[in-house]
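Page 37, continued from 36.
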């Protein structure tokens, strides 16, 4: 029997890569649901290719014939009655959290590209997944690598998780020159082709900060067990160091279709035509991240150590700051300044219900917006 797949965020970067995997695996997969935020045209095009799939448009309250579900509530309803065996969540940002919860509660495994789900609500997600008897399968390339390595070697044997980071386009720039960077420069990523939000996060190292928090949540690792190493070629996707000191790594060409393939086919390991690595002329470099120049990484460790809703606040402040940067309201280095300022507020409080997490998320967004309008004058 084919595995029934719901794909959320079908028109985005993860969505397009997932469609390649689904097309290659037509004998294995049956798409039952596609969602997009506002791109109704791309949903209708998909319907021609996969007529059995139902369609949900989360960012609009109505739209053309052929789309059955509308708005945020419509999306959750579509997930709940999709009958999917696995839901791939490729929604960008905090908007993906409620969809992840709905996927787990529907009894489907969750192939998770939306790292905010774990950053904001790791213990809630773990508890709900346990209750529903489903697995959370990471699609983030680093976590997909760590997941595979831990499965191979045993979680209890691992002493350290070592996440690689490309370092982004400004790795070699001077600290002083970062201030004048605009969105266009920051959107040109050297190794990965991704959506705008994650590309900026990659340039500030906030993406790696979010991934440190994500690794802690997914694999139950303490902050000091998670290391970050800059690896500009993006060939080694991550590593684990075992208790005996030996380091194991996962390597492939940088291509998101491999982690997507791995999550969708899990627990099987089947042939994949993407991301094959050849070794001729291959050079692999590693260096320490410059946390002075890119403070978002250290801020993430601080948020992780504080626990509770602090990681959600880190994420919310960063999302608002990145949106302001993309619309040219603030400069590149202001992203970290604003995140630090928002985090320095008192955010003590529980993170064990969706409501508490979303309240903190909203309060942090409002505070960051206030800082932008009050303190910064451009
Ligand atoms: Mg990643």
């Amino acid at each position: 029997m084919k595995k029934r797949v719901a794909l959320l965020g079908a028109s985005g970067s993860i969505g397009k890569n997932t469609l390649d995997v689904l097309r290659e695996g037509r004998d294995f997969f049956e798409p039952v649901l596609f969602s997009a935020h506002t791109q109704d045209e791309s949903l209708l095009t998909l319907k021609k290719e996969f007529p059995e799939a139902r369609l949900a448009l989360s960012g609009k309250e109505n739209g053309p014939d052929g789309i059955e579900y509308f708005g945020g509530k419509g999306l959750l309803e579509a997930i709940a009655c999709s009958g999917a065996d696995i839901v791939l969540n490729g929604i960008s940002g905090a908007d993906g959290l409620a969809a992840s919860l709905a996927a787990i509660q529907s009894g489907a495994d969750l192939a998770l590209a939306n790292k905010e789900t774990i950053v904001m609500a790791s213990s809630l997600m773990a508890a709900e997944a346990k209750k529903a008897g489903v697995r959370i399968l990471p699609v983030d390339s680093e976590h997909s690598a760590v997941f595979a390595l831990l499965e191979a070697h045993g979680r209890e044997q691992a002493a350290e998780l070592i996440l690689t980071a490309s370092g982004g386009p400004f790795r070699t720039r001077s600290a002083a020159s970062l201030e004048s960077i605009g969105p266009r420069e920051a959107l040109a990523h050297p190794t990965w082709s991704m959506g705008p939000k994650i590309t900026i996060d990659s340039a500030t190292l906030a993406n790696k900060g979010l991934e440190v928090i994500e690794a802690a949540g997914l694999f139950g690792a303490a902050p000091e067990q998670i290391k970050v190493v800059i690896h500009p070629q993006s060939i080694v996707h991550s590593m684990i160091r075992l208790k005996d000191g030996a380091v194991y790594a996962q390597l492939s060409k940088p291509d998101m279709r491999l982690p997507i393939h791995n999550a969708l086919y899990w627990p099987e390991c089947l042939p994949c035509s993407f991301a094959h690595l050849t070794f001729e002329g291959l050079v692999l470099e590693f260096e320490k991240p410059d946390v002075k120049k890119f403070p978002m990484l250290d801020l993430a460790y601080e948020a992780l150590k504080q626990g509770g809703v602090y990681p959600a606040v880190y994420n919310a402040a960063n999302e608002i700051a990145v949106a302001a940067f993309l619309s040219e309201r603030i400069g590149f280095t202001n992203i970290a300044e604003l995140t630090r300022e928002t985090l320095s507020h008192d955010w003590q409080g529980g993170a064990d219900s969706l409501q508490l997490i979303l309240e903190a998320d909203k309060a942090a967004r409002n505070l960051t917006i206030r800082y932008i309008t009050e303190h910064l004058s451009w």
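The pocket of magnesium ion is lined by residues 140-142, 211 (CB under 6 Å). Flag for discussion at group meeting. The chain is about 45% helix and 15% strand.
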